[in-house]
Amino acid sequence: MQTNNHQINDYSSVLEAKYGKKGSPERAQFDEEAYTFYTGQILLDARKEAKITQQELAEKLHVSKSYISKIEKGLISPSVSTFYRIINALGMRVEVVRPIA
Question: Are the CB atoms for 1 and 13 separated by under 8 Å?
């Protein structure tokens, strides 16, 4: 691992050193937590872009404001169905595409 001016040149080696090799239980747990955080950030940004409050979103979904807050903070991961309900409530859609080979 080399760093210059706090720039990481090989991020996978940093992750491996801290969380273990891909496929290890520790790395899988880190990856899951990272996905949960990333999902929360996507939803937070989308909610702000839609200019609605956590309370307004919660009311649309019939859930608590604290539930929305926990998702946005990456503390919990919504179920797939709840994720789609949030996306729909924010006027967005999910598109699944195959990468170009």
Answer: yes
The CA–CA distances, whole Å, from 100 to 15, 26, 93 equal 28, 32, 21
| Intervals of the chain under pLDDT 70 | 1-10
Handedness of CA 11, 24, 39, 65 (dihedral sign): negative
Whole-number pLDDT of residue 17: 82
Report the predicted TM-score, pTM, of the whole model to 2 decimal places.
0.76
Residue with token string 């946005």: 72
Check residue 1 and give its pLDDT: 46
Q: Is the dihedral of CA 74, 56, 79, 93 positive or negative?
A: negative
Give the chain's radius of gyration (CA, Å).
Answer: 17
DSSP 75: S
d(CA 29, CA 33): 6
* 8 Å CB contact between 68 and 97: no
